């Protein structure tokens, strides 16, 4: 479906003529904008999970508070020029800054080259989606959460951009596009929520067998098992999630118990700790050690953040994209899991969040979804067209 007009004006108007710019001037502009957006995403990735404002104060070194002047805050160039160190205190600056800027710039460039000729508006809308997915991926990897500002904001942005650029949904009119966007958001949320609930019934709990007499320490941010530390964000997603064990001995900072069942529900309000028949506020007990031979933790591949993330993807790309992303992310997750086992880092697997797999699968859908589903249905399953 190739348009000869865009937003009511002939396509030549946008790329030549008195007000238009030649196509590759737009390419340059979009790429530069991608680099600047990448720079802003770094601020979002660092500040949003900490609940800080993403606009104020201006960029500064987190180590020495040095306020970074604009000529040392250029995407990619500044990081290389300063060799990844603060200009004042020489504290290392994460290579993430460089990587996010480069990925965002490249994503904008390639999106413009692929879709800009036919549907400039769709290319712009896709760039907004990529920016959201890059931020969501990085925050999920570092904090095991995806902020609502990104996921629910993405649902709203996808809906509005579908109306402005109906080509995003593969249709001609704003009304049709908004309908597809709405259906995409609802289906996206439902498919992930269904897996989350159903998965809970199937493998909702994981029993971890320990050496008899093992000591498990619950501290402020996570639980220290003999195999290593597990942050609470990896264990608790919903108020009903509980860590359960039978304590041969239970020690709190002020007292201890013998032979009592222990149940910790951190996302209750207030967070709840039960030892035997006694219920207390877990916030008032920052430290607990339990001697036990088995501990049961809720096991969840996905959380509510992934439900909202998929709703956002559906709002941008339609419901087909969400079904594809769900299946694709599960496949990607398994491949990466097998890869980690192969290199002997099985322990990393439980620490990998699910959001990034959904994001990567959504990108694959937009790039190749049509040909992949075609290959799957007609070639692999030998169905005649
Ligand atoms: Zn510094």
Give a description of the structure.
- This protein is of the alpha+beta class and 385 residues long.
- It folds into 3 domains: 1-104, no CATH class; 119-201 and 306-378, no CATH class; 205-298, no CATH class.
- The protein has 11 helices and 10 strands.
- It has helices at 11-15, 23-47, 77-81, 96-115, 120-143, 148-164, 174-203, 304-317, 319-342, 346-349, 355-380; strands spanning 5-6, 9-10, 205-218, 222-225, 228-231, 243-252, 256-265, 272-275, 278-281, 288-298.
- The strands form 2 sheets. The protein has an 8-stranded antiparallel β-sheet with strand order 5-4-3-10-6-7-8-9, with no helix packed on it.
- Strand 1 (5-6) and strand 2 form a beta hairpin.
- Helix 8 packs across helix 11 (355-380).
- The two termini are 21 Å apart.
- The site of zinc ion (ZN) has 8 residues, from loops.
The total of helices stands at 11
- Tell me the helix content: 40-55%
> Count the strands?
10
**CA-atom Rg in angstroms:** 25 Å
The molecules bound to the chains, other than polymers, are: zinc ion
The major β-sheet equals: 8 strands, antiparallel
Task: Provide a brief overview of the structure.
The protein is α+β, with helices and mostly antiparallel strands.
Write the layout of secondary structure elements.
Blueprint lengths: L4 E2 L2 E2 H5 L7 H25 L29 H5 L14 H20 L4 H24 L4 H17 L9 H30 L1 E14 L3 E4 L2 E4 L11 E10 L3 E10 L6 E4 L2 E4 L6 E11 L5 H14 L1 H24 L3 H4 L5 H26 L5
Helix pairs in contact: 2-4, 2-5, 4-5, 5-6, 5-11, 6-7, 6-8, 7-8, 7-9, 8-9, 8-11, 9-11
This protein binds zinc ion (ZN).
């Amino acid at each position: 479906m190739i348009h000869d007009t865009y937003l009511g004006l002939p396509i030549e108007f946008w790329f030549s003529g008195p007000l238009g710019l030649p196509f590759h001037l737009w390419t340059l502009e979009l790429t530069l904008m991608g680099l600047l957006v990448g720079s802003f995403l770094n601020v979002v990735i660092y500040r949003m999970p900490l609940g800080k404002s993403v606009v104020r104060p201006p960029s500064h070194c987190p180590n020495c508070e040095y306020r970074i002047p604009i000529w040392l805050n250029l995407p990619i160039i500044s990081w290389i020029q300063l060799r990844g160190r603060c200009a004042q205190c020489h504290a290392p600056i994460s290579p993430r800054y460089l990587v996010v800027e480069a990925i965002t710039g490249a994503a904008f460039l390639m999106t413009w080259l692929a879709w800009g000729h036919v549907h400039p508006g769709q290319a712009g809308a896709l760039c907004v989606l990529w920016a959201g997915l890059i931020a969501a991926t990085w925050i999920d990897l570092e904090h095991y959460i995806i902020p609502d500002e990104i996921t629910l904001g993405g649902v709203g942005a996808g809906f509005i951009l579908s109306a402005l650029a109906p080509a995003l949904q593969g249709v001609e009119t704003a009304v049709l596009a908004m309908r597809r966007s709405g259906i995409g958001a609802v289906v996206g949320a439902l498919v992930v929520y269904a897996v989350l609930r159903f998965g809970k019934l199937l493998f909702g709990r994981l029993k971890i067998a320990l050496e008899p007499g093992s000591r498990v320490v619950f501290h402020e941010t996570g639980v220290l098992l003999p195999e290593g530390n597990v942050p609470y964000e990896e264990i608790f997603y919903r108020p009903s999630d509980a860590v359960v064990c039978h304590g041969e001995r239970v020690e709190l900072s002020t007292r201890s118990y013998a032979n009592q069942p222990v149940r910790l529900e951190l996302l209750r309000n207030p967070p709840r700790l039960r030892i035997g028949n006694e219920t207390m506020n877990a916030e008032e007990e920052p430290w607990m050690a339990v001697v036990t031979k088995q501990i049961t933790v809720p096991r969840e591949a996905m959380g509510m953040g992934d439900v909202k993330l998929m709703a956002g993807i559906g709002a941008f790309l339609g419901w087909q994209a969400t079904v594809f992303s769900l299946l694709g992310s599960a496949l990607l997750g398994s491949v990466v899991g097998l890869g980690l086992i192969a290199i002997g880092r099985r322990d990393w697997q439980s620490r990998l969040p699910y959001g990034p797999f959904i994001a990567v699968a959504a990108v694959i859908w937009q790039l190749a979804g049509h040909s992949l589903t075609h290959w799957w249905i007609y070639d692999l399953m030998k169905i005649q067209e």
